[in-house]
Amino acid sequence: MTRKIKIFDTTLRDGEQCPGASLNPEEKLEIARQLAKLNVDAIEAGFAIASPGDFESVKQIAEQIKGPIICSLARAKKEDIQRAWDAVKYSAKPRIHVFLATSPIHMEKKLRMTPEAVLKTAVEMVKFACSLCPDVEFSPEDAGRSEPEFLYKVIGAVIDAGAQTINVPDTVGYTTPWEFGQLIENIIKHVPQVRAKNVTISVHCHNDLGLATANSLAAVRAGATQVECTLNGIGERAGNASFEEVVMTLKTRRDFFAAQVDINTREIYKASRMVSNLTGLVVQPNKAVVGANAFAHEAGIHQAGVLRARETYEIMRPEDIGLTENKLVLGKHSGRHAVAERLKALGYDLNEANLEKAFNKFKELADKKKEVGDRDLEAIVSDEVYVVPETYTLEAVEIASGTHTKPTARVKLLYQGKVKEVNVAGVGPVDAIYSAMQKITGVAPELVDFTIQAITGGTDAQGEVTVRIKENGRIYVGHGASMDIIMASAKAFLAAINRLLYARTNPTTLRQ
Ligand code: KIV
Ligand code: ZN
After folding, report:
1. SS3 state at 421
2. Tell me, what's the pLDDT at 297?
3. What span, in angstroms and rounded, lies between the C-alpha atoms of 38 and 36?
4. pLDDT of amino acid 443
5. CA–CA separation, 178 vs 443, rounded Å?
6. Ligand having the closest approach to the CA of 172
7. What is the reported pLDDT for 509?
8. pLDDT score at 512
9. Residue 77 and residue 100: Cα distance in Å, rounded?
10. Distance (Å, whole) CA 112 – CA 115
11. Which atom of ligand 1 is nearest to the CA of 512?
């Protein structure tokens, strides 16, 4: 009989901890809806105690998303666990995920706790979580570097205290597939409660050495039945095990793993695009499964082979991940219904107000551009729909630049009903715009990254600019799309500044 492998998605928690990936509650809800369409077993919706915004977001997902388990992370502290419960209790399937480090380095240097105190706290906090919630998961953080005997002891004790899922994290991505597989095998062998109580052994691997997917799969071979992962592999530092890689490997090599996942893989491509689009984290072209080149065959000999028999060079079908050619062309004669349907096909189920915003923007674009493609629509959604409340609104930008002209920008921004205007010189037109905006807003963040790319081919393509700015160690992302790349740059920078200003008044105070 094939074993079922549960997929626990942590895009909205660990994924969102990735520098610059912070999502607003509406964006998180949209991604959670897409995760439900993927039919994931569990959604880790956030870290409820991190900030009021994180709490609201987990609560909203628990209230609105039906199907998967909805989980919140909590440190092994009463106030964290209570807050997690207050957010997830609205779900039909709530879960609290308690974690406490068990490696010598974490216990000594981070927690400043003795192993005995860690064991006692883990048991007490799991008991407290179980008194509130019927489903409790426990993670011995940094399990990959923990002393095996101590790890077995903690795992046995928290199972006795009521935890039904034990998640084994390779927190720093240190282990190799052989070691990690062996660790899982040893846990199952040396902790009798795992078998006696039919506990789910889960794994959570980080990608510091590029081994997160391989380690997760080695764990599945060794007996793990839940994998924690994120879309596009986003997450702390080098990220987490990638959802699409884990799922498509288990599906494509079902023969090898003798295991099955209940994921609707045809929703993968949409989900990947949505996460990339809303976080501003670009997917590398050669990324396995969802990269732009994943199904592109360049070499003539490969093309000839694929045309004769697809299987010569393709081990998965593009349609298995929902990558289908869109034959429907949208243009200025397309109506609201057609636009709404296409947005839905791309995974965006917009409410009336947001659809109105997206449709108005679509009309504006279609007036200038003959064909509006999927990437254009995605850009409209991230630019116009999921935005934080604007402190400053872009009124106008005028540029003087050329071979013999010193680049200057005249920028007008609307602030509390009044237009503020400056004229500033720079080393180039984009630099001049940025300096002008800094002058008006009084915000002077470090510009960490500026990327510009054409959304589609052709000279009438929209340019899409993504900027990352940094203040007090936090990164804020802004997107801007326009057929005029100077305008796209101005929109992107202002969007990032508005996010920064919004975060100042709605701070995320705590990050794991
Ligand atoms: O990487 C890690 O150890 C975690 C835990 C909180 C599960 O994210
Ligand atoms: Zn993690």
Report:
1. strand
2. 67
3. 5
4. 93
5. 50
6. 1
7. 39
8. 37
9. 9
10. 10
11. 6
Distance 240 CA to ligand 2 centre (A): 7
Residue 228 CA: nearest ligand 1 atom is 7
CATH number of the domain that residue 418 is part of: 3.30.160.270
Query: Using CA positions, which residue lies closest to atom 5 of ligand 1?
Result: 141
Q: Which atom of ligand 1 is nearest to the CA of 14?
A: 8
Residue type, 312: T
What predicted TM-score, i.e. pTM, was given to this entire model?
0.84
- Residue 143, both tokens: 């399990």
Q: Does residue 66 sit within a domain?
A: yes
pLDDT along the chain (512 residues), means of 10: 94 88 86 98 97 94 98 98 98 98 98 98 98 98 98 98 98 98 98 98 98 98 98 96 98 96 97 90 92 79 74 87 76 89 85 90 86 83 78 94 92 95 93 94 90 75 84 80 90 91 67 38
Nearest CA to ligand 1 atom 2: 171
Instruction: Tokens for 321, please give them.
Output: 């991940």
Ligand 1 atom with the shortest distance to the CA of 13: 8
Residue 486 Cα to ligand 1 midpoint, Å, equals: 41
- Ligand 1: list residues with CB < 6 Å: 14, 73, 99, 139, 141, 167, 169, 171, 204, 206
CATH code where residue 29 lies = 3.20.20.70
Q: How far is the CA of 15 from the centre of ligand 2 (A)?
A: 8
Its domain, for residue 435, covers 392-509
> Of 99, 240, 242, whose CA–CA distance to 170 is shortest?
240
Give the contacts of 453 (CB within 8 A, at least 6 positions apart). 463, 464
Residue 295, domain member (yes or no) = no
| C-alpha 435 – ligand 2 centre gap (Å) | 38
Is residue 114 located within the same domain as residue 198? yes
The predicted pLDDT at position 385 comes to: 78
For residue 506, how far is its CA from the centre of ligand 2 (angstroms)?
24
Residue where one domain finishes, among candidates 357, 384, 411:
384
pLDDT given at position 510: 38
pLDDT of 101 reads 98
Residue 285 lies in a domain: no
